[in-house]
Automatic annotation (TrEMBL):
Belongs to the AAA ATPase family. RarA/MGS1/WRNIP1 subfamily. This is Replication-associated recombination protein A. SMART domains: AAA. It comes from the Bacteria. The keyword Translocase does not apply. GO terms for biological process: DNA synthesis involved in DNA repair; DNA-templated DNA replication. It comes from Limosilactobacillus panis DSM 6035. PANTHER family: ATPASE WRNIP1, WERNER HELICASE-INTERACTING PROTEIN 1 FAMILY MEMBER. InterPro entries: AAA+_ATPase (IPR003593), AAA_assoc_2 (IPR032423), AAA_ATPase_RarA/MGS1/WRNIP1 (IPR051314), ATPase_AAA_core (IPR003959), DNA_pol3_clamp-load_cplx_C (IPR008921), MgsA_C (IPR021886), P-loop_NTPase (IPR027417). Residues 30-142 form the AAA+ ATPase domain. Transmembrane segments: none annotated. The keyword Transmembrane helix does not apply. GO terms for molecular function: ATP binding; ATP hydrolysis activity; DNA binding; enzyme activator activity; single-stranded DNA helicase activity. Keywords: ATP-binding, Nucleotide-binding.
Length: 426
């Protein structure tokens, strides 16, 4: 059922629909190399096949992980002899340097039009030398309506599909088929074929594909992708953003996807990061409870770990939020990286070694514990950046409100105490 022309591609109309980028490339016969990026079974190979069919160029398919440099050389020789070849390179994120170096000049001279296919984020996983020579196009999981179109074609096509078989697909079975694989058409067609070939005709001579038969034949696609796949990082990202956005039900949904994938390590790590990054000083007791829940989850393991995790995810969602901590340290880091640090005031320098006083180290240092309330006005930042202020207290929770009040009170006292008084800095 592989498409032979762009008109036969199901879904991905943002790329292959009339007037869209790949449609225009093919129509103008001005193809450039591209990387198609998206989940399995969503049409990456189909689009490459359709481009080749629509342009009548030779079409070859290799796998970057398993095929050798010699296989690439054969394709290059063919391109030299007979003109342009469209090369679909599956798993392009696995392309090693030797194969890449061989390919680059052929991409430059246009003999090989490379269509890379990958399930990994190309901006992270693909070498910049290849990436800069290709346009990156995302492909998306197919909608149930797209999948129903493909099912209809498969059931009626007598040449390449199941059209010669007397199949009757129940409406609820078609509905299940269109939604069971999370937009993976390959899995749908494989399941449909398995169901058709393994079901005996009924008394009326027809093959009745019912809901139970389809449910048995289709392996449902894991919602969270594999633990190392790009989709998995998207779920983790959505998990944190849902907690940050205070959406309990969305956060529990993404937590469930991560639990279903069995990746307790990622859940625990992300939960602790989220607690400190997004709730932080607005509710430090909740942050501590998140750490405790993460530790309990690791000790008891799945499936029981879901209980403390759910409790604390709900609490973090409904808690006041503050990112003042991460903003403060990132502000300090940014200034340090720009060279904004200056010399440490001499009275703050280490004075534990003999001769330190001769250098002025530790001289005139005021020991806070010798003063009322264990505090004294004293400049701690280097002169160059003595006015730096990284922490901006928020007012979203009582805990940080109290910290903020103390912060501003100390700032005011520091300014007043240092007026007209300057520590020696030489």
């Amino acid at each position: 059922m592989r498409p032979r022309t762009l008109d036969e591609v199901v879904g991905q109309q943002h790329l292959v629909g009339p007037g869209k980028i790949i449609y225009r490339m093919v129509k103008a016969r001005m193809l450039s190399s591209m990387i198609l990026y998206g989940p399995p079974g969503t049409g990456k190979t189909s689009i490459a096949s359709a481009i080749a069919g629509s342009t009548k160029y030779a079409f070859r398919k290799l796998n970057a992980a398993t095929d050798s440099k010699k296989d690439l050389q054969i394709v290059a020789e063919e391109a030299k002899m007979s003109g342009t070849v469209i090369l679909l390179l599956d798993e392009i994120h696995r392309l090693d340097k030797a194969k890449q170096d061989f390919l680059l000049p052929h991409l430059e001279n246009g003999r090989i039009i490379l269509i890379g296919a990958t399930t990994e984020n190309p901006y992270i996983s693909i070498n910049p030398a290849i990436r800069s020579r290709a346009q990156i196009f995302p492909v998306h999981p197919l909608s149930p309506d797209d999948i129903k179109v493909a099912i209809g074609r498969a059931l009626t096509d007598k040449e390449r599909g199941l059209g010669k078989m007397p199949i009757v697909l129940a409406a609820n079975a078609e509905e299940e088929l269109s939604q069971a694989t999370n937009g993976d058409l390959r899995s749908v067609l494989n399941g449909l074929e398995l169901a058709a070939n393994s079901t005996d005709p009924g008394p009326d001579g027809k093959i009745h594909l019912t809901l139970p038969i389809i449910e048995e034949s289709v392996q449902k696609k894991a919602l969270s992708a594999d633990k190392n796949g790009d989709g998995h990082y998207d779920v983790i990202s959505a998990f944190q953003k849902s907690i940050r956005g205070s959406d309990v039900d969305a956060a529990l949904h993404y937590l469930a996807r991560l639990i279903e994938a069995g990746d307790l390590t990622s859940i625990v790590r992300r939960l602790m990061v989220t607690a400190y990054e997004d709730i932080g000083l607005a509710n430090m007791p909740a942050v501590q409870r998140a750490v405790t829940a993460a530790q309990v989850a690791q000790q008891v393991g799945l499936p029981e770990a879901r209980i403390p995790l759910a409790d604390v995810v709900i609490e973090l969602c409904l808690s006041p939020k503050s990112n003042s901590g991460i903003n403060a340290i990132d502000g300090a880091l940014a200034q340090v990286k720009e060279g904004g640090f200056g010399d440490i005031p001499p009275y703050l320098k280490d004075a534990h070694y003999k001769g330190a006083a001769n250098l002025g180290h530790g001289v005139d240092y005021q020991f806070p514990h010798d003063h009322p309330q264990d505090w004294v006005a004293q400049q701690y930042l280097p002169d160059r950046i003595k006015g730096a202020q990284y922490y901006q207290p928020k007012q979203n929770g009582r805990f940080e409100q109290a910290l903020g009040n103390q912060y501003w009170q100390l700032k005011r006292a520091q300014r007043q105490g240092l007026k007209g008084h300057h520590h020696p800095t030489n």
